[in-house]
Amino acid sequence: MGFLSKLFGKGTKTGQGTESEQGAKVEQDTKVEQGAKVDQVTTGAELGAKVEQVRSTEKPDDSLPYRTEKELIERFGGIAFDKQYDFATVIGNNNWNIDMGKEVISFEPNLDFPIQVLGTFSHSSETWLWAWANTKSGLSEHITQQALQLKKYGEEQEIDLFSNSSVDFSKDELHRIGLIASGMFDASAYYIADYGQGAMLVTIKSDLVDRQRQDDHLRILSVFPQLISQFEMNHKIALQWYLEEKSYKISEQGAQLIATKGGETITAEFDELSRLTNLKG
Known about the structure:
Blueprint: E1 8-14, H1 69-91, E2 96-99, E3 104-108, E4 111-122, E5 127-130, H2 145-157, H3 160-163, E6 166-168, H4 173-184, E7 189-194, E8 198-204, H5 207-210, H6 219-230, H7 235-245, E9 249-253, E10 256-261, E11 264-270, E12 276-280
Helix pairs in contact: 1-4, 1-6, 1-7
């Protein structure tokens, strides 16, 4: 997943222990060398994947519930991916350390961020276990609030990924959950903390990270093509949401979306299946 794979970090874990679904203990103070090689993550849907016909060209309706993972990625994927760039700037190449007792993740002495634990991924069995279902972990309800809210949402909207305690999985799917959760809860970022036997997915909320937000016009030209190359979605709807979140004024001319802000313009062209064919700005 290119850029996102850089946020699949390795480090150490201290404080209260957690266990994987197999019951294997995550060792405390595991040492990993600085700059350890990070595995590349496989890609998801290709750019030309077939998607549904575009819905209304009016501003998307944010009052309706999203009933599928695809709709959630369309709604939150762009802005959540965008935030990952700012987070990467803050943490640099530092390895991580999690203290469960303090409920924080650290990247160096002065970079401590409060976290919400969403769940864990087992490398050996390639399964995902939600934090609320990990009865052996001893995690507090406070640190699993977002995971519990996603469970409730999944039950209400019949989204199996959120409501099933354990799911067969691949590493790239961690980014799907991370993007959705980051967007839904207005997190500053998400992070995948690899501890050897598995990986823990957390969201982070920090004023320090939020202050790094860049209103970079050209970033959209990099973020959005990467997003749609990884996940299946209606490109037009997803771009509309992303541009709305970035406070662009959007108009439509035939097969084009034209977004303007501060004297700068982004133009997007789509085919008859709402797949992006050209993006320039």
